[in-house]
Automatic annotation (TrEMBL):
<feature type="region of interest" description="Disordered">
    <location>
        <begin position="1"/>
        <end position="58"/>
    </location>
</feature>
<protein>
    <recommendedName>
        <fullName>Molecular chaperone DnaJ</fullName>
    </recommendedName>
</protein>
<feature type="compositionally biased region" description="Gly residues">
    <location>
        <begin position="46"/>
        <end position="58"/>
    </location>
</feature>
Amino acid sequence: MSMHPDTDMNPGDEAEPGTPGAGEDVCEACAGSGKQSDGKPCPNCGGSGHVMRGIGGG
C-alpha cells in the first residue's frame, strides 16, 4: 500500500480508489451510516459510510 500524503485515503481504507483488486465496502465502524453515535462524522471512513477493501485479484 502506498502512503502518499496527497491521497484521499481514510484510516479504514486498504487501498486507494481505482486500485485493481480493490472495491468499495460498507464501513464496519459506522455500519455505513457515516456517523458515530454522537452524530459526528465517522473517522474510519471520513463520513462517507464506505471504505476501500482488497477483494482479490493480483
